[in-house]
Specification:
Helices cover about 35% and strands about 25% of the residues. With about 350 residues, the chain is α+β, with helices and mostly antiparallel strands. The protein has 2 domains: about 1-120 and about 305-340, no CATH class; about 130-305. Strands 4, 5, 6, 7, 8 and 11 form a 6-stranded antiparallel sheet that branches. The protein has a 5-stranded antiparallel sheet with strand order 1-13-12-2-3. Helix 5 (about 150-160) packs across helix 6. It is flat, with a radius of gyration of 23 Å. The structure holds zinc ion. Zinc ion binds near residues 46, 71, 99 and 105.
């Protein structure tokens, strides 16, 4: 279903998506439900990538673009009347394209991970009293994007050696995500270069911070260099994840902090900068897994692909009370907003 803009009509006016006619009796999702305002941003990014990928002739890439074009064209929400008298808007039905680089699908996957993590956190904390959280970022020298797949494979092998080292003695569980950014340093920025790195969130025994158990930045760097068999690696970053300005983070704050690093595999801004870089990236990372976990976090960050249903019901908002109505919002490709008729 395409929107038709009649001549002389401003894009800022609201259109009836079904008929293509102008209708003033429309309302925007971001006005109806503040918590769902992010949909416009996700869907815009997806549309921008789709439009960029369309400017070429590789059949495989065009197929991805077509899939994204059909992603989340409309969103069906239910209105639930709770026993407290409040009316809540809850996502009920969407068709996702499930292309791994689609901004909408990526955002829904990360929502699901976040909600799952939040749900399982009390049990984890109960079982592992006093455990702490540490972030580790592991880098390697930047590579030309055409060598990315090979580099990622050697990083995975390096990781398998790394997590068996003595430095992991006090690590109870970990989750690792792969992120790829464009080479950034102003002076050295080389065309077509990528910066692959691992973000690792580790749950550590409280004794990790004491005496000879403590693994400082220098020791982590040495261990990572050894595991990668590459002395040209110049840095690893290690920081505490469960404190902010010295204050202990709990519950949702803690999950927010620790989920932050698991958000993207490629930042949306990097995806939209340079078509040839992105096309090569898509080919290079095809079917590679970007999320891995060890210890009891394995069960939290599911390995298998999420279903369409799981991407709708991420677990953040459950049905409360009785469903009293349904609202359907359509994506407006010119306005880049979701809207519905009254
Ligand atoms: Zn999608």
């Amino acid at each position: 279903m395409k929107e038709i803009i009649p001549q002389g009509v401003k894009i800022s006016q609201v259109y009836d998506c079904d008929s293509g006619l102008i209708s003033d009796q429309c309302t925007y999702l971001s006005d109806d439900s503040k918590k769902d305002a992010e949909w416009d941003k996700w869907r815009s990014n997806s549309q921008l990538l789709e439009e960029m990928l369309m400017q070429g002739d590789e059949p495989g890439i065009l197929r991805y673009a077509e899939r994204m074009q059909n992603c989340s064209k409309s969103l069906l929400f239910a209105l639930d009347a709770g026993i407290d008298g409040e009316i809540r808007q809850r996502l009920k039905e969407v068709k996702f394209c499930r292309f791994r680089h689609c901004a909408v699908c990526q955002a829904r996957r990360s929502r699901r991970n976040y909600a799952q993590f939040l749900k399982s956190l009390p049990e984890i904390l109960e079982k592992q009293k006093g455990a702490r959280w540490v972030f580790l970022t592991l880098t390697v020298p930047n590579v030309n994007i055409s060598n990315l797949r090979e580099k990622l494979s050697s990083m995975n092998e390096g990781w398998n050696r790394f997590n068996k080292l003595k430095e992991f003695k006090n690590i109870l569980a970990w989750v690792r995500s792969t992120e790829i950014t464009k080479e950034k340093e102003e002076k050295t920025k080389r065309e077509g270069y990528a910066h692959p790195h691992f973000h690792v969130l580790m749950m550590v025994k409280s004794t990790y911070f004491f005496g000879k158990n403590y693994v400082n930045q220098e020791k982590w760097l040495k261990a990572w260099r050894g595991a990668m068999r590459d002395d040209s690696i110049i840095s690893v970053d290690v920081r505490i994840a469960d404190r902010y300005k010295g204050k202990k983070l709990t519950g949702q704050e803690l999950v927010k902090s620790v989920s932050e690093t698991l958000k993207y595999s490629v930042k949306p801004s990097d995806m939209l900068e340079d078509r040839s870089w992105v096309v090569e990236l898509i080919k290079q990372v095809h079917k590679l897994r970007f999320l891995a976990a060890g210890g009891f976090l394995k069960g939290v960050f599911v390995k298998r692909k999420l279903t369409n249903e799981e991407m709708i019901h991420t677990g953040e908002i459950e049905k409360q009370g009785e469903e009293i109505a349904e609202l359907r919002y359509w994506w407006r490709i010119f306005e880049k907003r979701y809207a519905r008729k009254f």
